[in-house]
Amino acid sequence: MRFRLSRGMTYKAACANIPAGGGKAVIIANPENKTDDLLRAYGRFVESLNGRFITGQDVNITPDDVRTISQETRYVVGVSEKSGGPAPITSLGVFLGIKAAVESRWQSKRLDGMKVAVQGLGNVGKNLCRHLHEHDVKLFVSDVDPAKAEEAKRLFGATIVEPSEIYSLDVDIFSPCALGGILNSHTIPFLQASIIAGAANNQLENEQLHSQMLAKKGILYSPDYVINAGGLINVYNEMIGYDEEKAFKQVHNIYDTLLAIFDIANQQGVTTNDAAKRLAEDRIQNGKRNKTKAIAA
Ligand SMILES: NC(=O)C1=CN([C@@H]2O[C@H](COP(=O)(O)OP(=O)(O)OC[C@H]3O[C@@H](n4cnc5c(N)ncnc54)[C@H](O)[C@@H]3O)[C@@H](O)[C@H]2O)C=CC1
Ligand SMILES: O=C(O)CCC(=O)C(=O)O
Fold first, then answer.
1. pLDDT below 50 — which residues of the chain?
2. Ligand lying closest to the C-alpha of residue 9
3. What is the pLDDT of residue 28?
4. Most buried of 69, 72, 178, 246, CB within 10 angstroms?
5. What's residue 297's pLDDT?
6. If you write DSSP's letter for every residue of the chain in order, what string do you get?
7. Which pLDDT score is estimated for 261?
8. What atom of ligand 1 comes closest to residue 202's alpha carbon?
9. Based on the number of CB atoms within 10 Å of its own CB, is 177 exposed (0-12), middle (13-18) or buried (19 or more)?
10. Among residues 272, 222, 10, which one has the least CA distance to residue 97?
11. Where is the Glutamate/phenylalanine/leucine/valine/L-tryptophan dehydrogenase C-terminal domain (predicted)?
12. What is residue 121's predicted lDDT score, i.e. its pLDDT?
């Protein structure tokens, strides 16, 4: 669906209390053909938008690429020398989100001994595995790049599974940290996990249909744009003058926001996806009302 990533970023900002709209650029190309010239051309295009859109790091755009883009535009965040890049703090937010889901589901603050399946071991997935390993979680991992899976096995004692097997594992938590659209009518019937809590944007192929399918199976879904807001929080702080302590403090709010969303879903009998959407839209409407009042005053 057109603009779904951008809308997700808008909801992400609203749920994280960040006073910004949402936008995302997708470059349709083969990452193997990526060159500095192409990245610089993209940077010039972003610059031509005069700050109406600010770009950053994401899938197949590395911190080095961000540095190259920054040679052509001021409107880029996630620059290593400033905020250190968004992925580590995104993974911290996802880790805190997993804790919130465990608390909501099992009234427990402990993760040790739990079985977690992590799909995708890139910038976020690998860092998430580190947090989980430090809390004695038993990890099951998959990546289409076998070298990344081997690294997780070596560093975190993870069990490697084939990418197609990750959905059907008998685990407590499934953490999608690769690409979007992976929660769909083909994969959901296989899921055995009680909780879904991961970083990937747009995890639900069809938001209404697939959030309801998860709810019917009794699976607690942590809305992606709430749990993965750590990177956005970090880059927003980079925009306004980076203060690491402040950014980390704000990321810890993801825990309470998710608990509040799980409560709204329970009390109102709606899916967690709808509860998050209501929270985001209420905040956006309030923001608009306050802006109108400020202009009128
Ligand atoms: N980097 C960040 O701070 C944030 C990332 N996200 C989202 O989190 C997800 C992961 O982001 P990054 O780690 O930065 O990306 P990345 O590009 O570093 O890692 C993605 C990993 O997924 C693997 N992968 C791709 N298809 C797969 C499949 N079918 N099965 C298993 N592994 C597969 C890739 O080989 C790669 O290792 C993306 O959806 C991204 O949009 C969301 C918020 C912030
Ligand atoms: O927007 C960024 O640069 C970092 C966060 C991010 O990529 C996302 O939330 O999808």
1. none
2. 2
3. 92
4. 69
5. 61
6. -TTHHHHHHHHHHHHTT-S---------S-GGG--HHHHHHHHHHHHHTTTSS-B--BTTB-HHHHHHHTTT-S-B---TTTT--SHHHHHHHHHHHHHHHHHHHHS----TT-EEEEE--SHHHHHHHHHHHHTTPEEEEE-SSHHHHHHHHHHH-PEE--GGGGGG---SEEEE-S-S--BSTTTGGG---SEE----SS-BSSHHHHHHHHHHTT-EE--HHHHTTHHHHHHHHHHH---HHHHHHHHHHHHHHHHHHHHHHHHHT--HHHHHHHHHHHHHHHHHHHHHHHHH-
7. 98
8. 39
9. buried
10. 222
11. 84-291
12. 98
Kindly name the residue from 12, 24, 109, 293 that is annotated as catalytic. Answer: 24
Question: Cα(108) to centroid of ligand 2, in Å?
Answer: 30
- The percentage of the chain sitting over the pLDDT mark of 90, rounded to a whole number, equals 87
Atom of ligand 2 minimally distant from the CA of 57: 3
Question: What is the predicted ipTM?
Answer: 0.98
Concatenating the DSSP letter of every residue in 209-275 gives: HHHHHHHHTT-EE--HHHHTTHHHHHHHHHHH---HHHHHHHHHHHHHHHHHHHHHHHHHT--HHHH
Give per-residue pLDDT as tens, 22-32. 999 999 999 99
Q: What is the pLDDT of residue 88?
A: 93
The Cβ of residue 136 has, within 10 Å, a number of other Cβ atoms equal to 11
Taken in order 277, 204, 150, 109, is the CA torsion positive or negative? positive
Q: Which residues line ligand 1 (CB under 6 A)?
A: 57-60, 86-87, 90, 119-125, 142-145, 148, 163, 177-180, 199-201, 228, 231
C-alpha span between 272 and 218 (Å, rounded): 12
Order of all β-strands in the sheet with 195-196: 159-160, 138-142, 115-119, 173-176, 195-196, 220-221
pTM, rounded to two decimals: 0.95
Question: What amino acid is encoded at 287 in this protein?
Answer: G
